[in-house]
Amino acid sequence: MDSYFTTKRHERLREEVRAFAEAEVRPRIPEMEASRSVQHDLSRLIASQGWIGVTISPEHGGMGLGHLAKTIIIEELSRVSGAMGAMVQASQLGVAKIVHFGNEDQKKTWLPAISDGSCLPTIAVTEPQSGGHVLGMEASAVRDGDDYILNGRKVFVGNSHVGDLHGVVVRTGPGSKGLSAFLVESDRPGFSLGPHRAAMGLHGFSFGELIFDNCRVPATNLLGAEGDGLPVAYSSSILYGRANLTAVSLGIHQAIMEETSAFVTEQHRYGKPLHELPSIKLKVGQMQSRLMTSRLAAYHSVHLLDQGLPCDAELMNAKLINVEYAMDSARNAMEVHAACGLYTDRPVERYLRDAHHIFAPAGTSDVQLLRLGEVALGMSKGQWSQRLAAPVAGAAEAS
To answer: What pLDDT does residue 2 have?
Structure first.
């Protein structure tokens, strides 16, 4: 199946990322789980490999390999550590806003630094009171001469505590045309971070709070035009977010399958390997079926994206299937492991915790189903993948 979508270059990239993840990430996992602290050094080490620039054109120092290559990178990191896969996927959201909405000066300033790993970008949209309701946001930016002054809070920001450049969507006026996006450097006066809060899973990854208290930002940091904030938020989430989170789920799912297969081979009951029991073999077969379907949906959706073809529905479906199937397989894996799965000397409980973190971002499963229902009923409101097809297709040609 993989060979239909992937080239030799893709498979070399997979081998490169997998080898790195095994050598550099896996040995750190016990400490990551024990400390539950942000992995600043490891995040920088991963960024220095150049993988954050996978969808950035070579003109700006990137790899120019497109979204399928990005999926493979995130998948292979997530197979070892969902936290570090999440770190790369969150950085890619920060890439999207500059690639698609940045002017030439912004691209020349920031994309080479992102590509070489010296700058980690983020995107900040969600607020404490509005949640996923983008139009309900209250954080604001007011024009003051050649600057804007930002006030408000953003929460659940991926890479909050390792990010260097935050793409912040705030309100500059009323209604859907009253949102604007800004690039905010992490060292600007008036910008601060809330304390890191360790969560159920993804230990080592930060998704915290950004605080703006009369934070002055030059007007040249405006992304696109005033009023472009909604397209910045939606396109980053729909084109990159759904695909990226799909890849994290896929990597976790692969890890679940490998761990469970090894466990039922090593463990013996009634003088035979555990997998000889029909009930166990049935569960393993179901997990394998889910994994194959998940990978097919993931690769197909980003293959279309790389070709510049409309694929909003495919991206929704890929995120839905990968998230739901990974959580289902994680539950089955825990059932197969029984009491052994409850202890941290086996990674299956970590996979279960990590898988649940991918459910809400870029739309819960209910949101994906509602949007897919609109597609089926002919009620969808256009496709972001079609609107931004030219830059995406350009990335595909470079591969």
So the answer is: 54
